[in-house]
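Re-run with default settings, no changes from the original entry. Doing this only to confirm the output is reproducible before filing.
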Amino acid sequence: MEISEDPDLQPLLFGLFLCMYLVTVLGNLLIILAVSSDPHLHTPMYFFLSNLSLADIGFISTTVPNMIVGIQTHSRDISFVGCLTQMSVFTIFGCMDYMLLSVMAYDRFVAICHPLHYLVMMNPRLCGFLTLVSFLFSLLDSQMHNFMILKITNFKRMEISSFFCDPSQILNLSCSDTFSNNIVKYFLGAFYGLFPISGIFFSYYKIVSTILRIPSSGGKYKAFSTCGSHLAVVGLFIGTGFGVYLGSAASHSPRKIAVASVMYTVVTPMLNPFIYSLRNRDIKGALRRLPSRMA
């Protein structure tokens, strides 16, 4: 379905989503360029941030361009193969975001709780390994969703309450054995969501405990400031994502589901570069030096 079926709003929606897509891609590309071009940012934290930006570009590029074309051509249809492909790539990049946010929480835990051993513990080999594991888990999640979708037999001509092939919505198309589909969906949501969230909570529990033992207020503020951007992104992405994924089984409002899908597939990737750049002096400094380095 479309966000709005009002024909007078279609040009406005086309311009709005096109601008949001371009801002998202440009903002995340700037972060990747800033991190890669500035030697001061060649640290584990910014390595994971650049990978998160890359995942965000893939995440939004999976859905928004197709939606923009659909608005322009007044077509809401997608082929079976196209839907499976979009769902697979969407799941990979979406899960990559979750996994990388968890890894970034662990990185902050090591940096604040074990500062003297930070560079030894978070060595380049471990950083590359954690990124690879995040991708492999994301790929496994995508294949498990595909396996469940392929079991649905009545998937020929159906309409879902989203502007893209949302896995949580497609699973609801099955008229047979919906209980087992919901069980599997909640299991995947728990395994790929609650476990990473538990890791994030545990990391920040240790971080807060360590920060509270810092005697100076300036030291506490500096330690907290390194975590503020990450916490904001975690709350925005995971909150909206889980609201759509776990709430789709119970919600009967297609419009609310579509709006929530826009929040976590379009708005969140667009806000991530602003959250990290506005609250991070290193990123702002690297962005100011970027034109001279690129010249």
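The chain has a mean pLDDT of 79. The CA atoms of residues 239 and 264 lie 9 Å apart.
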